[in-house]
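User: Quick sanity check before I run a bigger batch. Here is a single chain. Can you write out its predicted 3D structure?
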Amino acid sequence: RYLVEAGIKASLTCPLRAMGHPVGFLFFSSCQADVYREAHVDLFTQIAGQVSIILEKARLYQEIAELNHLKDRLLSVTAHDLRSPLAFLKGYLDLLREGDMGELNPAQSEAVEKMRSTCRTMLALINDLLSLNAIASGQVRMNPRLEDPRLLLQECAAIGAMLATRKKMQLVLEAPDELPMVVCDRDRLAQALNNLVSNAIKFSHPGTTVKIRAGTDQGAIWFEVADQGVGIPEDEMGGLFSFVHRPSVRPTGGETSTGLGLPMVRRILEAHGGSVRASSAPGQGSTFTLRLPLEGGVQPGVRLE
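Assistant: Done. Predicted structure follows.
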């Protein structure tokens, strides 16, 4: 009745299917009689096929988004539930190690130290997972301000020097006396630099040197962390900043390494409108370079994701 009242004299109906099941239809109509030919049928069938694909992709994207949200929620809850008892356990192990609960014999001290090391590894992994989860879910907002990069470098070098001293290594800061102020999220940029310095120390042998350098060129400020460590195999360089990458090389002193730090560094630099790159060769050390634009980089309120 509606078609007659609307003056429709010819029509084509094309079914829409997804995963082999009907999900709707497309209706083509004309006020002229006998206008549709075989070519129209072929064309409309192709259009219906493309629309079906688009609808199915939209459904899949929605399902993936819901699953990702569920995954993020489960990861966050699980990580928090694991971190609390681990921190509690590590606290008591620290008391045992310091002798606050009685003197330990050598065998007991060795066992406690192994347990403390395992706790540190687990806590580091959980903290990295929580950081990645917060970044991936867009919970971390950038808070950029005008900062003095010299102060940032000095603080990073001070922290790195303590780690290097424990491993009988040297850490050297090589930077100009003056560097231009840069707009950045200080905490996040410090996190990226500290991660690179920590990695450089972890994957280097005692007696070697880690250098932190900085400078400017082509409208950007750059920071460089170079070590004399074990290096990275050539076939692993391409996936170095991927979340799924698992490096084959291990820390030289048995330190903790979750493999999640470099993906976070990449996310932080990209949120600043910058970049990170690496150069390395097995047995010849590695160099990581961060570049930030001096103008037009990170904007206030941008989510780190």
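The mean pLDDT is 85.

User: Great, the batch can go ahead then.
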